[in-house]
Amino acid sequence: MSSEKIKFNDTFLFGKSGVSPSRLESLSERLDICREWLLELHEKMELSFLNLPFEKNALSDLQKLVDTIDFSIKDVVVLGIGGSSLGPKAIYSALKPPYYDLNDKVRRVHFPDNIDPASFKALLDYLDPDRTLFLVITKSGGTAETATQFMIVWDYLNSHFDKKQAIEHLIAVTDPEKGSLRALVNEYGLKNCSIPQNVGGRFSVFSPVGLLPTVLAQLDAGQLLAGAGDMASSFRQGDVNHMALRAAGLFYLLHMEKKCPVHVLMPYSDAFYDTALWFNQLWGESLGKRKNLQGEDIFVGPTPVAARGATDQHSQLQLFVEGPKDKIITFLEVSDPGNDLEIPRVFGDYDSYSYLAGHTMGELLKTELAATSLALNKAERPNCSLILEKVDAYNLGQLFMFYQIATAVSGKLYNINPFNQPGVEQGKQYTYGAFGRPGFETEGKVMNKFKTGFATDSAKK
Q: How far apart are the C-alpha atoms of 216 and 222, rounded to whole Å?
């Protein structure tokens, strides 16, 4: 028996708005092949995100590192982008109390994952360098955005401290053997953690990428791994009806046979909105591919969209209900939201207020989720719910692992490689060339020509 606490309600993925049960049943053999394929990859250590929750001593080693950090540190800044930021940010947003960062007596974690100079400078101006720790997270060590932030922070710290003191305010998280950041670790003796070589950035949330910020924020990394481990273990047991396999199969059929290429993740809990943004990268970067495994052009990929309930009932829902029938909506529902607020009995003379009195805010949120699901189903729009018992580390760990498994299995169904991102690389190379990085001279010439043409066209306008 599985110990999963997450439930998958897929009722409205069938019928007029979805697929037939027999069609899903006919996919069961392919789904079992996908499961065996994924397990075989892990056994060969070609890929190990399924193994991360079971790494011995991983959490205790991180705790030993964190114990060397000055207790007076009150701000932790994560320098990273993409998978180096989205995962830990999703954990922090879900598990910290709401508006936690307004409390100046606690340790806060900041994720300046864009390189907007205005916001990054404002953060540095706000911070007290004596009480700030910077985590530099990049597996390759050469990610341009993170390298830029690191260079500015290195100068910032060295302007406040001598070199020995400056490095005490830095921890590097990078490849265990190679890359520019690993070389700097070796040269300057920086405190550091290693990202397993066979784990890609968007699958790294259970590595030090996600766990180190979690431990530093004094959140429950142990239960996060326990939830992930239980989801991974149940997947390994071989049940073809495992919720991640079933979800992957249904989403694939709805996309390919019912022409629903847009997948909306809509949490009805503020705690999980950054999880929806994490899902955007995981789903989009893993499954949006030009070529299949045979090298043929197929241009496939479901488009992920993040929404928030009930906010986007007043924004995107009109499109979801009456726009093109090209979307699958997955709701994230929390059975026990924790704190709730009773709606007081005031303004009794006004019908538009009095009907709410005596109910709770949480009751209204749950009712609106159910009403939205029913409205979508009536309009023949496929939708489903992932139901979490409560907002805690165990449930979050399960949710992350569920989506990682479903993503990998979907890649096999689409006959593409879900673990690479060739479409991202060309833009990186043009940027390297524009800034004169050695080895990218050809890309630099293309960029210079483009910028010249752009300037001319702009002048004509």
A: 13
H-helix or E-strand containing 174? Answer: strand 170-174
C-beta of residue 36 within 8 angstroms of C-beta of residue 44: no
- Which helix (H) or strand (E) segment is 374 a member of? helix 361-378
Phi first, then psi: give them for residue 303, nearest 5 degrees: -95, 120
Domain boundaries, the chain: 7-41+224-339+373-414, 52-222
On whether the CB atoms of residues 123 and 108 are closer than 8 A, the answer is: no
Tokens of 351: 């019908």
Active site residues: 285, 314, 428
> Which residues touch 379 (CB under 8 Å, ≥6 apart)?
17, 321, 322
Choosing among 3.40.309.10, 3.40.50.10490, 3.40.350.10, 3.40.50.720, the CATH entry for 7-41+224-339+373-414 is 3.40.50.10490
Burial class (CB in 10 A: 0-12, 13-18, 19+), 205: buried
- Could you give the CA distance from residue 91 to residue 219 in angstroms, rounded to a whole number? 9
pLDDT, residue 2, reads 43
Quote the Cα angle for 84-222-395, to 5°: 80
- Phi-psi label, residue 362: left if phi above 0, alpha if psi -120 to 50, beta otherwise: alpha
Query: What is the DSSP secondary structure assignment for residue 342, as one 8-state letter?
Result: B
Report the pLDDT value the prediction gives residue 442, as an integer from 0 to 100: 85
- The tens digit of pLDDT for each residue in 72-117 reads 999 999 999 999 999 999 999 999 999 998 888 899 999 999 999 9
Overall size of the chain counted in residues: 461
Separation of alpha carbons 202 and 282, rounded Å: 6
pLDDT under 50: residue ranges of the chain: 1-2, 458
The CATH code of the domain at 52-222 is: 3.40.50.10490
The answer to whether the peptide bond before residue 406 is cis (omega within 30 degrees of 0) is no
Within a 10 A sphere around the Cβ of 295, how many other Cβ atoms?
6
Collapsing DSSP to helix, strand or coil, 19 comes out as strand
CA 258 to centroid of chain Cα atoms: 27
Residue among 71, 82, 107 nearest 92 (CA): 107
Cα-based distances in Å from 282 to 40, 72, 305, 316, 451: 21, 35, 12, 22, 32
* Cross-strand pairs, 387: 7, 333
- Quick one: three-class SS letters along 210-224? HHHHHHHCCCCHHHH
